[in-house]
Each structure stands twice: as C-alpha cells, then as structure tokens.
Structure to design on (1118 residues):
C-alpha cells in the first residue's frame, strides 16, 4: 500500500513535465504576448521587432522552453508579463477563493444529490423518480452563466435578499455556490440513482434483505457504501472540473478566483501565469485522484493496491 | 446463483426479433415512450429543418427586431417564437440549431465514449504498466482545465464545427475511462469472472461477454449525461467567444447571445434553453430505458 | 449564586450584541459619515505604474492617483494648466513649462522639476515600457530651476500639449520610486492626484481615499472603491441593486431598466470612438480593387447599424470627429447608402464570388450584432462574406499576423478606434506607408501631407491640411468608417458627475449627496 502511493507520487513528475510541455507549445506555437499588447495600427515592423527582442520572444521556441524548464527546476515559474511580478505567488493568492467556492458548491451538490438519487432509485419509475429526473435535467440544461444571471435577477435585484456579486461576506458565497452546485448535483443524482439500482440487485443485498434487515439499514449499510464507488470516481473528475470550470461562475459573480486569473492569462498569452496555474492545478487534481483511490479501498475491501 | 451469473449474455441475434423485443419492452415503459418520441422528434426537426422552417434562419430583417412570441400581445403571427436582436425568426433558428447541437453532441460523445471505454476496460482489466500509462495520461488531461485546453486548441486550430467536436471529444474521454476502469476492477474481482477464467475463456472473450455488459449501464447513463454536457459546453465556449461561427446557428450560441436580454427580451434565451432541456430529457429517458433493457440482471 | 433564567440569558445576549455593535460601529459610520463611492468596471489595472499599463481602465485609475503637467478638458478638447501653471513655446521644437509650487506627493515628497525630468527619462530609458514609442518625441528635458523645465522635441510638434498629456504622463516621486523599485511602485503607487492609494485586491477591487491636500481642493468623495465586474449584465444588476454607484457602457437593451429606476440616471454621450472596417489593399485580395471597396462603402446602411447599436450614434465617413481640430463637415454625419450603386460596382469589378474574410470580435456593446448586420448588408449586394466573430485575443492575433507575418487576417476586419489625444495626428498616422501594415495602403504624396500636417504650427493651415488628407482617404478607402459610437453611464442620483466623451472616468471633482 505505502509502496503503491510512493510510486504514484513519483509518477506525478512525468505528468507534470508533460503538462507544462503541452501547455507551452499549444499556446506559444500560435504566438507571443506582443500580439496582445501592440497597437497594430501605430507600430512599424521595426518597432514590433524591437519589442519582441526586448522580451526575448524572437528566440526559437524550443530555446524559450528549455529556458523556462531550467528556471522551473529552480522553482521559478518566471515573471508575469501582465503584472510584472513572480507568477507563482499570484496564483497562490487566488487559490483560497476558488477552493472555498468549489467546496461550497460540492457540499450543496451532495446535499441535493444524495437524498434525490437514493429516493429515485428506491422508488424507481414512480412520480418521485420522474420529478427528480426532470429537475436534475433542468439543472443540467441551464448553463451556469444563465442560471447565475437568473438567480441574480431574482434573489439580488428583485427580492434584495442577497448581494449581486463580489466575495466579501458569506452571503456573497450563496448565489455562486448554488449556481455551480446545481449543475454538479444533476450528474451526481443521476449517477447515484443508477449506481444504487445496480447495487440493489446484487446478490448480497438480496441476501441481506432475506436475512430480514430493514430497508433503511440495507440501503445505508450495504447499498450506499458499494454504490458510491463509481459515483466517487466521477466526483473525483467533477471536482477537478469544478476547480477548472469555475471560470464562468467567477466571471458572472465577479469572484476574484483562480479561474478568472487563468482565463485572462490564456487570453493575453501570459505564459508564466498559465504555467504556474496549470502546475498548481495539476498537483491538486493528482492529490484528488489519489484520495479517490484511497477511498476505494475503504469502501470496498476487495480492492487492493500493491 | 453464481452459476446463473456465469451465463454469458447474448443479445438476440436476429435483428427483427431484436426490434420486436425492444418494442415489447417499450410498451411497458411510459418513460421509454417519452424518450423515444422526443429523440425522434429532435432528429426529424434536424433532418427536415429546411422544410419546416418558415423563415431563413440567418437573414436579418432590421425592421422586425425583438418581436415577442406569437402568443404575446404586440407580436406578429408570422413569428411563432418571436424574433431576435437582428429580426431573425427564433423558431427557424431553433430548428436549424438542432442540427448542429445534435451533430456536435453525438459525435463528440461517440469519440469520447469509444476512446474512454476501450482504454478504461483494458486498463482496469490488465492493470500493470498499461494502467499506469493511461492513468498518467488521464492525469495529464485532467490537470489542464477544460477551458484552458479549449482556448488553446481553438486558438491554434481556429473556431469551426469540426474543431469544436474534436475539443469536446478529446476532453470527454477521461470520465469514461475513469468510470469504466473503476468498474472493471470491481467486476474482474467477482466470482463469475473468476469462474469464466477457470472455464478457459480468453481475456477478449471475458471483456466482451462479462465486463462490457456490466459496465454498459453506467456508460449509457454517463453518455446521455455527456451529450447534455456537450451541448452546454458548446454554449460555455460561445459565452467566452470561442463558439461555432456565423452563419451556423447553435442552441448554445443562441443562449449565450440571449443572456444580455434575460430581463428585456427573455424569449431569445428561453426558446433555445427549452429546446436543450427537452432534448436532454428525451435522451436521458431513452438512456434510462435502454439501460434497463440491456441490464443483464433485469432479464 | 442565582440560577440563570432564560430571560436573563436573552437579555445578556442582546446586551452583548449591542456592545459589540457599538464597538464596531465607528468602522462603518464615524462621527461624520464617510462619503463612499463604488464604481464597477469590466476589469482593473494590472500595474499602477502609468507607463506600463495602458488598458483603458488602467489609464482612468492612474489619472485618479497621479497628475500630469497639462489637463485635457474633454468637454472642449482644450488643454488647461495643471501641474504646470503655464507654458511657452520658445521655438518650433522647444518649450518651457513653469510648474506649480507647493504641491506635495502623497508621501510628502515635494513636486518639482526634478520629478518631471525623472518621470520622462524613466520611460525613455526602458524599451519594455508599453508607451516607450509614444514618448520618443521628447528629445531632451532640461531642469532650468526647481519649478521650470525646458523640453526639446525631436521635430516640430504642434500637438505638443496633447502628447505631453499622453499615456504615462503622471508625474512620479523620484525618491519613492528609487526606494521601492518598479515592482514595488506598480503595487503601491504614490502620486499628487485627488486620491491616495489604500488597497489593491487583484481582479476584485482598488480602494482609494481622498487626498486632503489636493491642489484642486479635497475631493468630495472620501473613499473611492473601484470594483472589477466582468459580466455586463452583472454590472447592470449591481447598479439596479444599489451595490455600485457608477457603471460605464450600459448595454442598450438595459437603458430602459436603468432610466425607469427612481434611484438612477442614465447619461448618454457621443464618444471619440469610431467604428470602422479596415480593408486590405494587398495585391491579389478582393479588396485590392477600388470598385469593391467602394461597393462595400455604398452597401452599408449606417442608419440601420446605428439603430442596432441602440440609437444616438452618428454615421460618419471620417474618424476625426468634433470637437477635434480638422473634423470635416462633408464627411461627418453623412451616410452614402446606395445598394444599387454597390451592386453595379460589384458587377463592374467582375467579382467572381471569392469570399471576403471578415474578422470581428465582441468587446464593445452590440459588436457581434453589428458585425452580423454588416455581413448581411455586404451579402445583399452580391459579395460573399466569411464572417468570423473571434474571441478578443485570437482576433488580435489574426490582425497582428495579418499585419506583420503575411498570414492571419485578410480582406476585412472591424475595429473601433478612439482618440483620447483630441488631435487629428493620431487619427491619420496609420495611413502612412511606414505604418500601413494592416492595410498595405501606401501613397507617398499622402505621406508628405501627413508629415506636413503633423508639423504645421499655424492652426488654420493645419486644419486645411487635415481636410485634404481626409478627402484623399475617403476616396481610397483604407478604412470604411461606419459611425461614431454612443456611450452611456448609469449612475446613482446621489452622484453629481459628468462623463467625458472619451469615456474617461476622473472623479476628483465628483460630488456625492
């Protein structure tokens, strides 16, 4: 077990190298940030060339990559082109906001999905099931930005219960977390329902029922525990998606998190921030996958890693 | 009980009997009927859009901007669902939009599904180096946020329908891989697989006869959800300005463009929003029903 | 000891809450309530160092913290004394500026001639400064005494006052900049301006407070909060909810909602921004044919575009708009819509149906809609158009590579160009052969006129020269101008403030009820 995790952690290194390589070339093969800054209507080619030279963008792209990697090996992600500051601290100072938003959304999603999914599974094809399905589809079919705008109009502008945007107080967290959570809850509900249906039909559940255990005990002790394995797998993925996908919700609610920073960095081709952000993001995702694997062994003792 | 589980699952071989079987099952499931009806209707709308659409979807009529739907006061009877900010008929646009949304949703998910299921089963079943390599590849894909990857790929390839499908397909395989791998690991440890192995079945046979049917229910649910996510993701890309280009009409871009009018001309976004909801609902119902039908333990 | 009754607990709790409230209350409402003003922009600065960030919003933020020698009165287009109390032209290339005395930077450093010299020298010493090229017109700056500087220009500069008030003009304190370095200054600026820097939370807010010693008088606003709210509908929602007091560029579909709100007012005004199509003259492209370019000009119904944009904008065939010197009465507020003529020109040109690439983006209100409308107007006269509405960075790359690498953008792209210099020189600079990368339009005789106009010191002669330049350009059509944009500001009725035609937000003299 310990060896397994030690190996997994070692395996992160090639992944991180691969990630930086992919990002660097995918973004930089297209161009350099000068295109984003230069007032094309006013500069002569000589002036453009001087600007590119000043920043070192006129060197061959692989030289720039090697240069980047050499600095990275020393723990230096380089300086943000836009902010003229070291990139890593810029990313890290945004992280808490995004993590808070993602955690709140995940909490809301589980609180909604667990009861809905179980009820829908236990009472399959009943009215409850149909309503739960329809509701969850609605949650899915409404894109984040749309739901966000509707929630703002309703709860902030018309009713005046909650602030419109920003991140100052816990009240500011409610609308963005709900917006994000609803989309996530949909997938979770469907997966929990499907997974529970699977498990309910398994032999040991039938056996447990035959032994005369009550419905509730069977559901929670046996069915839920096993039914959660595929759900957790997807949730691990969704959580990763959450961290990366908060972008739109952050933008709608003016939430100053990592997502906004990353999108602006990609749009302005601010490589140092993109790399530092993706790097931090990759670490989080890998840690999350590792924890999901750990949870497997906890939920199903038949699964072993070695 | 274990003996029953060892029975390989065979779908009816003769097509006609398969259809008859499906039809028989359909009669017993109202949800299945709804699903089939909706999906058929959407496919028909996509196919017949040029015939049904009362107006040209891309031609602006500058003197008829932002007309409300026909059932509201002040509306014109010619425009069932009203007109948009350039005076284009929303009903016709929704009809034409179904084409792109269906094509994008189905093709992207198919790509994702094939790559994800194959790699997931192999990784979960064989384990070892193969599992490690796919696992790290998955990590790599997961570690690059969807939006960043999409921005980058669209930036390099340029925005077009095919590129959009590629982006969404390439991003989507990861979840299929992870789900299938996880389930395969669990299934491979079950008695009936061990029994099949003891009976001398090859790995390929075991994968096809025992693993695939058992992961299929989750895959179908995931795929139906994924078609929905894909349609929505296209909308998110439109929101960020990376969507399909004019004059192609998509539900996603209609929604994204309509968001600025939520408070003043709600029909701009509600029409494509409803179209997406109903379609997704239909696909999910269909998926639920198919899942029940295909589920070996429900026979 | 008595037992605790529930009543007692409740009373104690209430007392504790009251005490806590009393304790914290001063933070919210002191003896004299602080006048706080909250403004929401699409984005914030990335750097507070003026010459390093010239995003439009950044220039607004910089100007509220720092001051320049000369102030552009945006309502009249005139230049008024500011940190300089006067100036004198010594020759065609040298100027003397007399500085105001007794002004101090926020940190107490005195404002003087050394500071002015330091500010300009600093830009000229660093070619990574984004405005580096714009300040090359200064050849030398000489400190005569503590309150006098003499500036020599590289060439005769009729637009001297405009340029000396250009981006990056805010005078910085030499001692402080040397002490904290460029990175430190970019995070924590010090200026002479109406507001002092308090706090910067990136992508969230900038907090400024009134400078009590401001030389134009202490601002009425005690605390200025500038928030970043990227989504336009969220900005409008914040305004309607009362969360912010001032929002610029309200989308036209929301004008009615703002106007009908009893706490809000909507101010519409003409900007200096002109919406235009850039046409490439490169041989081999469809738009190389002057008849096709003319057809494009005639095909566009500018009045309809104005309606789509929300109304109030002015159709135009030039980018030099009033009150800027040299605006041409025959070209401004003119529409030449004539689809029949356009169709005929397309036929005469022998157009074979090769599609015209048309790049656009979606950054200003209704840009996507206007682009689609233009595309359909061109198609209506028989041209095939391949419109691509790209995200802003891909768009910029297309233009950049189209201009400098021979790939990327081809026939047409849409842009909106402003003129915060309020001088025609910048509006025609792109028509010179040296700077024609986006059009490949080159006429040596026009080049001569442009240089001559840029150096002509007699105002009336200069005006005539700019008339002539515009008359040539309108026939050659490197650009087809569409309309002068209308912009809006939505604000709380408790705010007394007038927006500037270039959209500039300076709140040093805003009043709050």
């Amino acid at each position: 077990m310990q060896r397994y995790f030690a190996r997994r952690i070692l395996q992160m290194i090639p992944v991180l190298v691969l990630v930086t390589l992919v990002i660097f070339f995918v973004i930089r093969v297209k161009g350099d940030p000068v295109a984003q800054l230069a007032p094309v209507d006013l500069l002569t080619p000589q002036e453009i060339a001087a600007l590119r030279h000043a920043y070192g963008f006129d060197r061959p792209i692989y030289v720039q990559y090697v240069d980047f990697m050499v600095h990275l090996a020393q723990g230096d992600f380089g300086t943000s082109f836009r902010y003229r500051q070291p990139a890593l601290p810029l990313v890290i100072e945004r992280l808490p906001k995004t993590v808070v938003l993602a955690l709140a959304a995940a909490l809301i999603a589980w609180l909604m999905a667990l009861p809905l999914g179980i009820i829908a599974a236990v009472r399959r094809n009943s009215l409850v099931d149909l309503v739960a399905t329809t509701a969850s589809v609605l949650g899915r079919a409404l894109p984040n930005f749309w739901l966000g705008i509707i929630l703002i109009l309703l709860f902030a502008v018309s009713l005046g219960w909650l602030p419109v945007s920003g991140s100052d107080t816990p009240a500011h967290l409610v609308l963005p977390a709900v917006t994000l959570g609803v989309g996530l809850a949909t997938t979770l509900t469907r997966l929990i329902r499907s997974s529970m249906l699977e498990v309910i039909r398994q032999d040991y559940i039938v056996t447990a029922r035959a032994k005369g255990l009550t419905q509730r005990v069977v559901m929670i002790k046996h069915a839920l525990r096993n039914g959660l394995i595929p759900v957790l797998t997807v949730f691990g993925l969704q959580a990763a998606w959450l961290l990366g996908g908060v972008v739109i919700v952050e933008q709608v609610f003016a939430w100053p998190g990592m997502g906004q920073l990353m999108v602006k960095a990609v749009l302005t081709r601010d490589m140092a921030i993109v790399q530092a952000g993706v790097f931090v993001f990759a670490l989080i995702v890998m840690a999350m996958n590792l924890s999901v694997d750990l949870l497997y062994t906890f939920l199903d003792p038949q699964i072993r890693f070695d | 009980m274990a003996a029953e589980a060892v029975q390989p699952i065979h779908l009816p071989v003769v097509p006609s009997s398969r259809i008859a079987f499906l039809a028989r099952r359909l009669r017993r499931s109202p949800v299945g009927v709804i699903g089939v009806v909706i999906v058929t209707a959407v496919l028909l709308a996509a196919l017949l859009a040029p015939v049904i659409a009362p107006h040209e979807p891309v031609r602006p009529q500058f003197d008829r901007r932002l007309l409300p739907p026909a059932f509201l006061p002040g509306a014109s009877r010619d425009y069932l669902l009203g007109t948009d900010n350039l005076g284009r008929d929303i009903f016709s646009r929704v009809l034409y939009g179904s084409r792109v949304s269906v094509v994008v949703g189905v093709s992207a998910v198919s790509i994702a599904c094939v790559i994800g299921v194959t790699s997931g089963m192999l990784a979960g079943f064989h384990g070892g180096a193969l599992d490690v390599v796919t696992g790290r590849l998955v990590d790599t894909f997961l570690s690059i946020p969807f939006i960043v990857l999409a921005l980058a790929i669209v930036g390099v390839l340029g925005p077009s329908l095919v590129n959009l499908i590629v982006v969404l397909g390439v991003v989507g395989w990861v979840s299929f891989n992870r789900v299938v791998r996880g389930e395969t690991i669990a299934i491979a440890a079950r008695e009936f697989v061990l029994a099949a192995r003891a009976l001398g079945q090859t790995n390929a046979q075991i994968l096809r006869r025992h693993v695939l049917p058992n992961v299929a229910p989750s895959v179908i649910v995931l795929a139906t959800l994924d078609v929905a996510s894909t349609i929505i993701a296209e909308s998110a890309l439109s929101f960020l300005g990376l969507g399909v280009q004019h004059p192609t009409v998509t539900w996603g871009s209609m929604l994204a463009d309509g968001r600025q009018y939520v408070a003043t001309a709600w029909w701009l976004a509600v029409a494509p929003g409803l179209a997406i909801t109903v379609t997704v609902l239909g696909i999910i119902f269909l998926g639920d029903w198919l899942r029940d039908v295909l589920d070996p333990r429900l026979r | 000891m008595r037992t605790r009754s529930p009543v007692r607990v409740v009373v104690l709790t209430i007392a504790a809450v009251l005490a806590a409230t009393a304790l914290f209350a001063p933070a919210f409402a002191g003896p004299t309530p602080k006048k706080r003003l909250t403004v929401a922009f699409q984005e914030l600065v990335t750097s507070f160092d003026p010459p390093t960030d010239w995003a439009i919003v950044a220039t607004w933020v910089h100007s509220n913290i720092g001051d320049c020698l000369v102030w552009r009165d945006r309502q009249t287009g005139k230049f008024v004394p500011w940190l300089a109390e006067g100036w004198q032209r010594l020759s065609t290339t040298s100027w003397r500026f007399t500085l105001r005395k007794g002004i101090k930077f926020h940190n107490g450093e005195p404002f003087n001639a050394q500071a002015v010299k330091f500010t300009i020298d600093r830009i000229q010493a660093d070619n990574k400064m984004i405005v580096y090229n714009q300040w090359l017109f200064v050849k030398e700056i000489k400190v005569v005494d503590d309150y006098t500087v003499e500036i020599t220009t590289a060439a005769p500069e009729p637009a001297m006052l405009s340029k000396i008030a250009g981006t990056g003009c805010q005078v910085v304190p030499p001692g402080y900049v040397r002490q904290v370095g460029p990175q430190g200054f970019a995070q924590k600026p010090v200026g002479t301006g109406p507001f002092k820097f308090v706090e910067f939370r990136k992508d969230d807010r900038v907090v400024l407070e009134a400078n009590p010693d401001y030389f134009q008088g202490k601002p009425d606003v005690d605390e200025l909060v500038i928030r970043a709210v990227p989504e336009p509908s969220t900005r409008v929602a914040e305004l309607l909810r009362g969360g912010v007091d001032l929002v610029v560029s309200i989308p036209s579909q929301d004008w009615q909602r703002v106007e009908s709100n009893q706490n809000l007012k909507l101010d519409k005004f003409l900007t200096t921004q002109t919406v235009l199509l850039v046409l490439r003259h490169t041989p081999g492209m469809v738009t190389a044919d002057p008849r096709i370019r003319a057809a494009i000009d005639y095909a566009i119904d500018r009045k309809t575009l104005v309606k789509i944009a929300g109304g109030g904008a002015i159709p135009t065939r030039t980018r030099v708009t009033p009150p800027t010197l040299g605006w041409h009465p025959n070209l401004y507020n003119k529409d030449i819509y004539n689809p029949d003529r356009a169709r005929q020109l397309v036929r005469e040109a022998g157009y074979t149906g090769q599609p015209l690439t048309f790049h656009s983006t979606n950054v200003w209100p209704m840009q996507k809609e206007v682009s689609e409308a233009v595309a359909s107007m061109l198609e209506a006269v028989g041209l095939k158009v391949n419109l691509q509405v790209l995200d802003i960075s891909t768009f910029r790359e297309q233009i950049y590579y189209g201009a400098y690498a021979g790939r990327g953008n081809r026939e047409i792209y849409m842009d909106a160009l402003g003129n915060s210099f309020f001088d025609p020189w910048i509006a025609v600079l792109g028509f010179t052969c040296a700077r024609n990368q986006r059009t490949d339009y080159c006429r040596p005789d026009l080049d001569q006129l442009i240089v001559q106009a840029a150096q002509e010191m007699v105002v009336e002669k200069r005006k005539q020269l700019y008339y002539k330049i515009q008359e040539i350009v309108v026939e050659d059509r490197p650009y087809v101008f569409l309309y002068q944009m209308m912009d809006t500001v939505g604000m709380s009725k408790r705010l007394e403030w007038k927006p500037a035609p270039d959209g500039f937000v300076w709140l040093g003299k805003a009043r709050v009820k």
Summary: The radius of gyration of chain B is 23 Å. Confidence is low (pLDDT under 50) at residues 1-15 of chain B. Chain B touches chain C at residues 58-60, 62, 65, 85-86, 151, 154-155, 158-159, 240-242, 245-247, 257, 259-265 (CB under 8 Å). Residues 81 and 271 of chain B are 7 Å apart (CA to CA).
